[in-house]
Design brief:
The chain has 522 residues and is an alpha/beta fold. The chain is built from 18 helices and 16 strands. The chain folds into 4 domains: 63 residues, no CATH class; 132 residues, no CATH class; 164 residues, Transcription Regulator spoIIAA (2-Layer Sandwich), CATH 3.30.750; 122 residues, Aminopeptidase, CATH 3.40.630. It has a 7-stranded parallel beta sheet with strand order 1-2-3-4-5-6-8. Strands 10-11-12-13-14-16-15 form a 7-stranded mixed beta sheet. Strands 7-9 form a two-stranded antiparallel ribbon. α1 runs antiparallel to α2, α7 packs parallel to α8 and α12 runs parallel beside α14. The chain starts with a helix and ends with a strand.
Length: 522
């Protein structure tokens, strides 16, 4: 083999045996090149160069074989995280670290923060460099789930928020000219890189009807609430600055407006203990005031930049040991229902950073999964049931309905899964609200989420994954039936991401006041 291009050409000829052929070709190249091992990233560059010059045709099989860190697009989307600039925080939480030139609660050693600092926190640059990296690793970037992280979003100046969102859309559209936000959003409906959802993080005490209207104008579809604890005495001891009543109200207002909700929860706070932490998580999914769609579990990590470090130095705080923490989280996972996704189980703090106490295990999720398998049980959360790259077109699917009361309304969780519910293909969240946050949602059922899992497939292209097989459309049709026939409501609304609007338009929905609306009289 004379050059790297030959590897790609031979792969193109190998058909469905790419992975086995790739190993053989790599070994042969190394043997003839004094032991030089060719990386998949270099092969991807060569593949794209040959593609641009017309020497080979587009080959999805090659792209999938060479794809790096496949998990990045195995949930049906790619996540692009963008950090806001450091800004003063309204809170005085004793567990939050404070570093210079870093948003409160974050540290510069975290990968997303390090990228943001390199880009001087500029949103356009952050989005573009992330998209470039994903493409270089072989991932499609058609469907972007944008995560805006940093400080309390709702506390940032409104002008900065507008500019930040505009720059994110401009980067996704690959636009070199500045336009108004509505025009950039309109362009993104047909862009190559479509933003199909935007999540921001904020505090529960900043959510009100005015803020909800503003979030919708910006294109936000999901909100991550810094809840941390559901006990007022714990919130007060840790100087959180809000009480659980604000969390309950914010959860209801957001759900009634169709938003997806993620709770940040923090076991091992000052004043708590493993028994009380477990009780807290049980109540999250038994008390209708809560029941979040997603949770991030961030066991308190003792960092020297946080006020809590001084409390620990005086002997007034004791972090959980590894065994205690793992046993707690194993017990927590047993109580997570089918409709919830555990987004994370630990902060993304590199092992090179010295954590003084508490959550020091960087691979905590893997440790817990390994232990649960040994104990003979599986977590029911969405992330643990996603099909990822194990799509089987011949597997018989069943439509499941889970009804539950939440935040003074009715929630219907629809899903296509295998018979024993260990493999999740597609889901839909439908809400029948007790109250309406916005006039446009009066007398309407609300689709809060539609998501098909598995390897992300490019828009308008055939796929070898579960996407583009009509599962989402079937769930929407079922939701429309439930709204009309079971609840006798003749209008349905969807809180669509900007880049997903055309999907709903093809199903008879029309844009009105930032929502996709369909009348169900016929």
């Amino acid at each position: 083999m004379e050059n790297i291009s030959d590897i790609i050409i031979q792969l193109a000829k190998s058909g469905t045996k790419n992975r086995r052929t790739l190993d053989i070709l790599k070994r042969r190249f190394a043997k003839n090149s004094n032991g030089v091992v060719v990386s998949n990233s270099l092969l991807l560059k060569v593949y794209h160069k040959l593609l641009s010059t017309g020497k080979i045709r587009e080959n999805k099989s090659i792209e999938e074989t060479l794809r790096i860190k496949k998990v990045r697009s195995l949930s049906g989307i790619v996540v692009v995280s963008v950090l806001t600039k450091p800004y003063k925080c309204p809170g005085k939480c004793i567990f939050c670290p404070t570093q210079e030139n870093t948003p409160k609660s974050y540290i510069k050693e975290e990968p997303a923060v390090a990228r943001a600092i390199m880009m001087d926190y500029h949103p356009f640059k952050q989005v573009q460099i992330r998209l470039k990296a994903l493409k270089a690793a072989g991932h499609p970037t058609d469907k972007i789930d944008l995560r805006i992280i940093g400080g309390t979003w709702s506390f940032y100046p409104k002008n900065y928020q507008n500019w930040f969102i505009k720059e994110c859309f401009r980067a996704a559209n690959n636009s070199r000219t500045t336009k108004s936000l509505p025009l950039l959003q309109k362009d993104n409906e047909r862009a190559k890189n479509r933003i199909i959802g935007i999540m921001i993080e904020t505090r529960p005490d900043f959510i009100n009807l005015k803020e909800i209207k503003r979030l919708r104008e910006l294109g936000i579809t999901a909100v991550e609430l810094g809840v941390q604890s559901i006990y007022n005495d714990i919130l007060e001891k840790n100087k959180r600055g809000h009480l659980i009543e604000e969390t309950i109200k914010a959860t209801r207002l957001l759900k009634d407006a169709g938003f997806k909700i993620c709770y940040q929860m923090m076991p091992n706070l000052l004043g708590s203990n493993p028994k009380r932490d477990l009780k807290m998580f049980k109540e999250l999914f038994s008390n209708p005031d809560f029941k979040p769609d997603y949770i991030k579990i961030y066991p308190c990590a003792l960092l020297k930049e946080a006020t809590l470090y001084k409390v620990w130095k005086k002997g007034n705080y004791k972090p959980y040991g590894k065994e205690t923490l793992i046993n707690l989280l194993l017990a927590v996972k047993k109580h997570v229902p089918y409709y919830c996704r555990i987004q994370r189980i630990i902060r993304d703090i590199p092992s090179s950073y010295v954590i003084q106490g508490g959550a020091k295990i960087s691979n905590l999720r893997q440790e817990i999964e390994k232990t649960s398998r040994k104990q003979g049980w599986n977590c029911k959360c969405i992330r643990c049931r996603e099909i990822k790259d194990n799509y089987n077109p011949k597997e018989e699917l069943f439509l499941f309905r889970d009804y539950y009361d939440a935040s003074q309304g009715k929630e219907i969780f629809l899903s296509f899964e295998n018979k024993n519910r260990t493999r999740l293909y597609s889901l839909l969240r439908l809400r029948i609200a007790g109250q309406k946050s916005l006039a446009v949602l009066n007398n309407a059922g609300i689709i809060r989420e539609v998501h098909t899992y598995g390897q992300m497939a490019s828009i308008k292209k055939d796929s070898v994954s579960a996407q583009h097989k009509g599962l989402g459309k079937k769930l929407i049709k079922e939701a429309e039936y439930i709204v009309k026939e079971e609840f006798e409501i003749h209008k349905i609304a969807a809180i669509s991401g900007i880049g997903a609007r055309n999907y709903y338009k093809k199903l008879g929905y029309r844009l009105k006041d930032t929502y996709m609306i369909k009348e169900l009289w016929q």
